[in-house]
Amino acid sequence: MTVLSYVSDQADSAWSTYLAQVERVLPYLGDLTRWADTLRHPKRALIVDIPLEMDDGTVRHFEGYRVQHNLSRGPGKGGVRFHPQVTLEEVMALSAWMTIKCAALNLPFGGAKGGVRVDPRELSIKELERLTRRYTSEIGSIIGPQQDIPAPDVGTNAQVMAWMMDTYSMNVGATTTGVVTGKPVHLGGSLGRVKATGRGVFITGVAAAQRIGLEVKQSRIAIQGLGNVGSISAELFYQAGAQIVAIQDHSGTLYREDGIDIPALLAWQREHGSIAGFTQAQAIRHQDFWLKTFDILIPAALEGQITEDRARSLTCRLVLEGANGPTLPGADDILRNRQITVVPDVICNAGGVTVSYFEWVQDFSSFFWSESEINQRLDTIMQEALDSVWLKADSLKVTLRTAAYAVACERILMARKDRGLYP
Ligand code: NAD
């Protein structure tokens, strides 16, 4: 195995987590193992400098990235993250997880991801627009509807996608809606896209709970992160009768023994920007979130949150990975030994990229589907993906994560093998 010169050897980095996950699937790949090194090498990694004129006349520079991890099965697909701690290595890991996710769901895409090392909350709306446009221009040579299609992730949203689409379109001289997904619906976006990731967490969560004999209606749930993914998951599980007993975001942690009133909390969050100060639940210490008693845990914030220590003390029976890479490899082993089922990110949070795929198809054909049609297709694809991964896990006697990697890596490496090497 070759080691990339531009990555650190930090054991708990997202890239190291991804590499450890790949290691675990190798024994199940048969002859395709010959091609497996391709999984450890991002195809293309672009670092860009984004000079930005601030509203006060000063100029600041921000670092941006776009990584295309693997394009064997189709154009790159993956979000853009605006966050002050984004690094090239993190974006590499996120792009690799997109490769696995798209293949696990059998979507005709490779994996990519982008990021800018910035706290978007510190920028004015005009500064954010200028930053987005310059970043889009800088990565413009490698994105496109047939090359690589960005989408929203942490810190970006439909408005950012609209600016990206407009900037790319201005640069190529034609309105090109298919260059990004997650756009506003009136600009070629898809109905159902905003809620798709949370809906996917719910669909796979209900199916997984059923398989392990857990009644969603009677269940107690803890959610970390109340952004796009966490809030929709919370809403759907709440509507299904579950009690959301603990919620954590960047501003604090809330707990209520008999369940938090989710509509009231979401209204509070809309008004105040975070969950801090909500009085209809008890504010508890950050670390106590992990020690509470609940049946289902939904990490829906950032990666690396389920450490070995936390895995040892968790009381739940099911983890639904709304976030990308929330569980460290050592913690995965502990959860497995403790018979806590983990629906891995590459299946659990794939609802977003699945509806992004629908959006891309709709943009090409300029024919748009109804929301119920989209939700129905999403439900079918996610149920089928979970079924095939569960079957694989049972037959190989491995975790759902390793089974998802087995299904995905077979598809990726088969494509690699059949395409051959050029020259
Ligand atoms: P978001 O920016 O809308 O929300 C992020 C949430 O995490 C916020 O509530 C924030 O307060 C919280 N958070 C941030 N730092 C935290 C910390 N240290 N402790 C606790 N909470 C913290 O982002 P999102 O789009 O909901 O994405 C969340 C996760 O889901 C990410 O891992 C992302 O990659 C993944 N994901 C998102 C999508 C999507 O369609 N949005 C799709 C697939 C995966």
TrEMBL record:
GO BP term (any one): L-glutamate catabolic process
UniProt domain Glutamate/phenylalanine/leucine/valine/L-tryptophan dehydrogenase C-terminal: residue ranges: 190-420
Catalyzed reactions: L-glutamate + NADP(+) + H2O = 2-oxoglutarate + NH4(+) + NADPH + H(+)
InterPro entries, alphabetized: Aminoacid_DH-like_N_sf (IPR046346), Glu/Leu/Phe/Val/Trp_DH (IPR006095), Glu/Leu/Phe/Val/Trp_DH_C (IPR006096), Glu/Leu/Phe/Val/Trp_DH_dimer (IPR006097), Glu/Leu/Phe/Val_DH_AS (IPR033524), Glu_DH (IPR014362), NAD(P)-bd_dom_sf (IPR036291), NAD_bind_Glu_DH (IPR033922)
List of residues binding substrate: 77, 101, 356
Site feature Important for catalysis, where: 153
SUPFAM superfamilies reported for this sequence: Aminoacid dehydrogenase-like, N-terminal domain, NAD(P)-binding Rossmann-fold domains
Keywords annotated in UniProt: NAD, Nucleotide-binding, Oxidoreductase
Active-site residues, as the UniProt record annotates them: 113 (proton donor)
Binding, NAD(+): 197, 228
Keyword Protease: no
GO molecular function: glutamate dehydrogenase (NAD+) activity; glutamate dehydrogenase (NADP+) activity; nucleotide binding
Pfam families: ELFV_dehydrog, ELFV_dehydrog_N
Family to which this protein belongs: Belongs to the Glu/Leu/Phe/Val dehydrogenases family.
Free-text function comment from the UniProt entry: Catalyzes the reversible oxidative deamination of glutamate to alpha-ketoglutarate and ammonia.
Name of the protein this chain belongs to: Glutamate dehydrogenase
Organism: Rouxiella aceris
